[in-house]
Amino acid sequence: MVHLGPKKPPSRKGSMADVPRDLLEQISQLETLFTIDTQKLNIIVDHFIKELEKGLSKEGGSIPMIPTWVMTMPDGKEKGTYLALDMGGTNLRVCEVELLGNRDFDITQSKYHMPPEMKTGSSEQLWDYIADCLQAFLQSHHPNGAGEELSLGFTFSYPCSQTAIHNGVLQRWTKGFDIDNVEGHDVQPMLEAALKRKNVPITVTALINDTTGTMVASNYTDPETQMGVIFGTGCNAAYFDVVKNIPKLEGLIDLDPETPMAINCEWGAFDNEHVVLPRTKYDVQIDEDSPRPNQQAFEKMIAGLYLGEIHRLVMLDLHEQGFIFENQNVEGLKKSYSIDASLLSQIEEDPFENLTEVEDLFMSRFSIQTTEPERKLLRRLAELIGTRSARLSAAGVAAICKKMGIEKCHVGADGSVFNKYPHFQERGAQALADIFGWKDIPPADHPIKVQPAEDGSGVGAALIAALTLKRMKEGLPVGMKPEIIEKLALEHK
Ligand code: BGC
């Protein structure tokens, strides 16, 4: 795949000359609230590096920095057929991946809609549903039986503490999930029990975060990839560290200090103690009204789940203060999370000078008649929210590179915000250039490039299952020693 790299962020055409003074003042206040200049960005990066290190230390910090037990990058020669399961927010995806041994693969997949009520339903319902989907997949793709028990790479993209590659105790739900009796439990036995109940011949070989899968899949096709990031409903990153840099593993493993170890950062939790991120009152409100207040501070300013909600809260606030939508019924805007990031994308992408597409959108979706100056404010607001998200995301990438002394690499990125939000990639690249001072380097030649990833939860999960089985065959560790795992499990009880 040829990546030309992002272009420069566009300078917005469209004049503000006809915008009345009171609205201009509001726009200027919003600009102050939401803009993160380079100086502030560098302060955030410096603090981020310290927090990444703290997460790896014995005392720990807000960022979980979870050792994933993925200890090898693929060499491209991996072969075999593996199943991959991805539990996303809206869909369950099951894939059968055939690794072809030449950095190439074939993939067959099916998607199963995940009923929204399942996000807050019961644990049994969740595992039974997943087992049913896997069974349905096998029945349609292997009607005569799969032969032997199949190995599954399970992409479960929530913070899980791992004592070995195949297990993970859910620390806490994120992205609006709130299912009882899963937090604090190992998810692998729960899924395997459901598979057993239903006689589905599948073993969970590896439990994987989407970021780790993304990194490994991208590295498979592009060996310059050293990091995997997701900017979607949630946000997070994985990278390779080495055991000697992970003091919290001391005494728990017996590995050469130079052994590589993929770390699932769970950086959505960065700055949960609110030291450095410039939160607005809207961010505070989102946090307070969320199912998990005081958690995922960074994610709540960046990720797709929250971008539309931030826009909605600002609009309502400006309306209540009498600045916009005068004499309009704004009932349609009152439902929490009724606006998602795709609406902001549409606002930003309206090609017309007088923003008639935004006008139609607000009329059809919310029965609100907007004026042209109001629409200009709404567009500026979308730009500000989208730009802040991209710049903060870049701060995370820069922090990992600086911590690891990486001056040149590719970063595999996936997720709806990265792939679909207008100008996200260019704005992120600009922020990296600001942080690293790449003034005269065109974006296509930036030494650190964040670029579209390979399919992490399909190919990445299959590769990790393959790498795990290979390590096991060679007698190499894929987790802590069994006696330590047992001891930790007892302490946990
Ligand atoms: C989760 C991470 C995940 C990220 C992107 C976050 O909410 O905690 O595990 O990698 O979303 O999906």
Summarize the structure in short.
With about 500 residues, the protein is an alpha/beta fold.
Q: Your description of this structure?
A:
With 493 residues, the chain is of the alpha/beta class. The protein has 15 helices and 13 strands. It has helices spanning 21-34, 38-56, 123-141, 187-197, 210-221, 281-289, 299-302, 304-320, 341-349, 356-366, 372-404, 416-420, 424-436, 456-473, 482-492, and strands spanning 66-67, 79-87, 91-100, 105-113, 150-155, 160-161, 169-170, 202-208, 225-231, 235-242, 260-264, 409-414, 448-452. It has a six-stranded mixed β-sheet. Strand 9 (225-231) and strand 10 (235-242) form a beta hairpin. The longest helix has 33 residues, at 372-404. The chain is globular. The mean pLDDT is 94. It binds beta-D-glucopyranose (BGC). Beta-D-glucopyranose (BGC) binds at residues 157-159, 174-175, 209-211, 230, 232, 234-236, 266, 268, 299.
